[in-house]
TrEMBL record:
Superkingdom, taxonomy of origin: Bacteria
Record: residues binding NADP(+): 8-13
Keywords associated with the record: Amino-acid biosynthesis, Cytoplasm, NADP, Oxidoreductase, Proline biosynthesis
Pfam family, one: P5CR_dimer
Designated name of the protein: Pyrroline-5-carboxylate reductase
Coarse class of the protein's main subcellular location: cytoplasm
GO terms, molecular function: pyrroline-5-carboxylate reductase activity
One cellular component term from this protein's GO annotations in UniProt: cytoplasm
Pathway of action: Amino-acid biosynthesis; L-proline biosynthesis; L-proline from L-glutamate 5-semialdehyde: step 1/1
Binding positions for NADPH per the UniProt entry: 57
Keyword Lipid metabolism set for record: no
Length: 268
């Protein structure tokens, strides 16, 4: 019999994963059940993806072989308390919340459940997610592979030591937001100089996508790739010098350390 994947929480990240899974076609829509308190979110998801939905989290807990908890971190204790006695004995619980450790999740279940901790990101929706994964010892190699397979259906995955999860949150979980800010700012600059906004976003976003692919596919150092764009006495080095003067690198490093710090604080 095919397995059922259950989601509790159908917001930004829940929908990105559901959309990714549906597009990858690894679970049929009748094997996906989604619970949320927000009926509007459920209606939208049911209409868009043809999945089954419920406002009763326990309905999801009872049926799911793989249960992805995609509510906000502060709601983990509330939701886990509600469902812990309803989940299947061998359920694989997948947590995606910032700052929620495997040990913390086990404590909330008050028993040794199978826990896979993942930090995904919203580009999952377009098949370009990045997910870092770790698990407790109750999860077998086959079960971990099964979960990795789900997350790989909508992007790339990397197994990490749990100690790195706070850094992961900063470098891939949250980082799409910084990149959107960069694209938006490039768009504004181009609009300032007379380009229509839709063209400006398309050009900026495609340049970011292409640059990211260059890093991933050539394996070259980002600094070398940057140097290849900078003609001596040319245009790019003028922009690079201004970015250095305005502290781009310092701003990025400092922002990411704030993000990591917040994730550590949320773990306490
Ligand atoms: N957004 C992102 O880019 C990423 C998020 N994450 C993690 O994903 C999790 C979800 O984040 P995100 O999707 O952004 O949050 P959202 O607020 O967008 O989604 C959470 C959903 O859960 C619903 N909800 C609230 N209470 C309950 C409840 N008791 N039972 C069931 N559903 C409930 C919310 O409804 P309502 O809106 O009515 O409150 C909402 O629809 C977080 O733990 C976050 O750390 C991880 C990586 C990236
Ligand atoms: O902002 C947050 O807390 C979540 C975790 C990673 C991305 N969004």
């Amino acid at each position: 019999m095919s397995k059922t994947i259950g989601f509790i929480g159908c917001g930004n990240m829940g929908q990105a994963m559901i959309g990714g899974i549906i597009q990858a076609n690894i679970f049929s829509s009748e094997n996906i059940l989604v619970g949320d308190v927000n009926e509007k979110s459920l209606e939208k998801a049911a209409e868009k993806y043809g999945i089954k939905t419920t406002t009763d989290n326990n309905e999801v807990a009872k049926i799911a072989d793989i249960l992805i908890l995609s509510v906000k971190p502060n709601l983990y204790p509330v939701v886990i308390k509600q469902i812990k006695d309803e989940v299947k004995k061998d359920v694989i619980v997948v947590t995606i919340a910032a700052g929620k450790s495997i040990e913390g999740t086990e404590k909330m279940f008050k028993r040794k459940v199978k826990v896979v901790r993942v930090m995904p990101n919203t580009p999952a929706l377009v098949g370009e997610g990045m997910s870092a994964v770790c698990a407790n010892e109750a999860v077998t190699k086959e079960e971990l592979d099964e979960i990795i397979n789900i997350f790989e259906s909508f992007g790339k995955t990397e197994i990490v030591n749990e100690k790195l999860m706070d850094v992961v949150t900063s470098v891939s979980g949250s980082s799409p937001a910084y990149v959107y800010m960069f694209i938006e700012a490039m768009g504004d600059a181009a609009v300032l100089d007379g380009m229509p906004r839709n063209k400006a976003y398309k050009m900026a976003a495609q340049a970011v996508l292409g640059a990211a692919k260059m890093v991933l596919e050539t394996g070259m150092h980002p600094g070398v790739l940057k140097d290849m764009v900078c003609s001596p006495g040319g245009t790019t080095i003028e922009a690079v010098a201004t970015l250095e003067e305005k502290g781009l690198r310092t701003a990025v490093i400092s922002a990411m350390r704030s993000c990591t710090k917040k994730s550590i604080e949320m773990s306490k």
